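Hi U.,

Before I forget, here's the chain from the pilot set. I'm dumping it here mostly so it's searchable later in email.
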Amino acid sequence: MNFRSYLKISVSNYANAWKLLFYRLIVWGIVFALMAPFYNAIREFVLGIWNFEFFKQVASAGLFFGKNVSLTFWSVIELLIQHLQAFFTAHLFAGIYLAFVLLLVKPFLMNIGRYVVSEITYGYMSSQSKHGFCSTYVRTLKKSTVYGALRTLFCIPFNAATVVIFYYLMSLQGEPLQFAAIFMFIIASTIILSVKQLLTMCWAPAMVVSGENAIKSFQIGIKATFRGYRGSVLFSICISFASLVLAAGFGIFSLVLIVPICAIVGAMFEMMQFFACQGMRYYTDKNTVLSSKKLEEQDKISQVKFLL
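Structure:
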């Protein structure tokens, strides 16, 4: 699929982007509601670290601001670890519960939204039909919950590796290493997150199109992704690298905008890439139907066994 077709479909389905963004805000509302029983403990933790100097330190940590980002990030990490240790010591159950909500429940709900976008995009591309976000959410809830749970668990090692690398590189001592640490982090994390994106890119689209279960669809998605590996790799690297550079450039607070934008772009691109990788015909508008390269034109003789 060329960029023009992708842009045309994205513009035609811009409403889905707003719906997904609104859904993500609802998820955050649910997360805050689930955290509410431990409001006093959370308030105590936040007030313990939050002051104007801390805010200025975090807000000014960005490559585009000309600051030593690694040094600033490391001082923030040390402060957070110190207070988190005290929090878990004083409120062990609350700490475990809140970690469960933030690290498992939130991404699980977010991934359900990704599946719904894939379902809506498939309807538009395959038959020019338009489905509501809420009706699609309810109709596909059984399959989307399985996908959401498995994708959440699958992504944990990649996310954990990114956090560990961030911690290790920010802790490096010496001015040359501290200066280079943020760039080393961007490169290493781009590789890790690109691999994660590649492996999960066509997972939801494969479930939607094939109707298979989550495990079988993961296999179908992997084959589709690597059938069109050039576009898949390029998108994975670009979306990962761009998000990391912008986050490092503008600081941690910029993630409030960067994360949902990348999630929306990725969710809409995945179905389009699956169509292209599978050689499927698709609508770009109600009067135009395009054809991707057929499977036999994409695969080598040695890959014939992977044809679906």
